[in-house]
Amino acid sequence: MAQVYNWQLGREMEYRFPEAHPKWQFAAVFNINRCIGCQTCTMACKSTWTFSEGQEHMWWNNVESKPYGGYPHNWDVKLLQLLNGISPGMSWDGSQPGALQAPYGRYEGETIFEAAKRAELPDTAVGYLPTDEEWTAPNIYEDTPVNRATSTQATRLPEHKTWFFYLQRICNHCTYPACVAACPRNAIYKRPEDGIVLIDQERCRGYQKCVQECPYKKPMYRPSTRTSEKCIACYPRVEGSDPLTNGLPMEARCMAACVGRIRLQGLVPMAEDGTWKPEPTNPLYYLIREEKVALPLYPQFGTEPNVYYIPPRWVPRPYLRQMFGPGVDAAIAAYRRPSRRLQAVLQLFRATQTIVFRFDVKEGAQIAEVQVDGQPMALYDDVVIGFDSRGKEVVRVSVKQPFFERPAQYLNSI
User: Fold this and answer.
1) Based on the structure, what is the number of domains in the chain?
2) Are the CB atoms for 362 and 383 separated by under 8 Å?
3) Which residues of 110-148 are buried (b: 16+ CB within 10 A; e: fewer)?
4) Over the stretch 152-188, which tens digit does the pLDDT of each residue have?
5) Residue 46: which of 25, 63, 32, 34 has the closest Cα?
6) Other CB atoms closer than 10 Å to residue 152's CB: what's the count?
């Protein structure tokens, strides 16, 4: 095991391979607050990549209703129980959060890699192999809330008594992927140009170690070919080789198809030591590293996932803290009372299929003043401008969205 630095944990940790980082890293932000659970992203991925024989159970993109739903069933609960059974107390020291190298504080528990070594397991990471039954019903418990039968009183923010939320999931294309560390054939690798994690189908022998040890259960076994497959981040679009891209990096299919405009995907520049190069005008860097409004999913696993979430405002905080770490309260506060610049950047979600590498904000007039948590907050009609990899403007969106009134002759007759 090598020693690598995990900035999400605020410390070094053990991993099978030494530090090695791509030039750019595929990353995305999902705004849970906006998701309507329509599964359009799921079907866009399914119809593009997993429509063949042997892929029936494969849902590289899926949307789960939490707290009860999951695919495979109860994947997170099972992994948390396994990890806590070996190494009780997945605690954080949040006394000094905010540093560039430790924005959420320091994780004091053991990762899936460290727990496996201490317990002298034969595997690289703590994990399990789901049963065939657990790979059925990808939308099990959809729209099933907590306290649905016991609470009939009206509710309001900051927390609801009856609640559920949608969790959108793809492969996290982790910085320290458990699937890469687990494969005895070294068939899984991170691309040096963009950090996308892929499986070499020629080398794979279907041992399913990647399925077992990925904590998020995103590699999946295909019985018809006896190999494992996973989300490939639509890399032809990301690298600009898809005919639709005109040579420009383009968002993945699940991102581009999103009806609720909850997804923003792009590339962030990486330093040789694995940190993100400071790029405050890169929308992902700004949301994740500057505003800290978007958080990793189960950072305590230790894989340093590169898909981030703006947590839902209405969910009890203890549940969200065990899922997204100790940065939850600050992230929700930043989203509830967004800065003027954040208000503008949030308009970039699903505004264009072309990946935005840089943004600029043109300030406009004040258009309103609202009350948030009993305090006044001004709203401005600012305009956010997005630029592609060549520095050319590709999108321009204002904070104040126009109203379109349908003419009488086109009114819906239903």
Assistant:
1) 1
2) yes
3) bbbbbbbbeeeeebbbbbbebeeebbeebbbbbeebbee
4) 667 778 888 899 999 999 999 999 999 999 999 999 9
5) 63
6) 9
User: Does any domain span residue 211?
Assistant: yes
pLDDT, tens digit, 9 for 90 and up, residues 302-315: 999 999 999 999 99
- Structural contact between residues 76 and 134, judged by C-beta atoms closer than 8 angstroms: no
CB 284, CB 40: distance < 8 Å: no
Domain range enclosing 112: 21-398
What's at 322, amino acid-wise? Q
In a domain, residue 369? The reply is yes
Any domain includes 231: yes
Task: Give the tokens for residue 265.
Answer: 């995907």
Give pLDDT tens digits for 303-346.
Answer: 999 999 999 999 999 999 999 999 999 999 999 999 999 999 99
Closest C-alpha among 357, 356, 381 to residue 368:
381
pLDDT more than 90, % of the chain: 86
Q: What angle do CA 24, 254, 296 make, to 5 degrees?
A: 55
Does some domain include residue 8? no
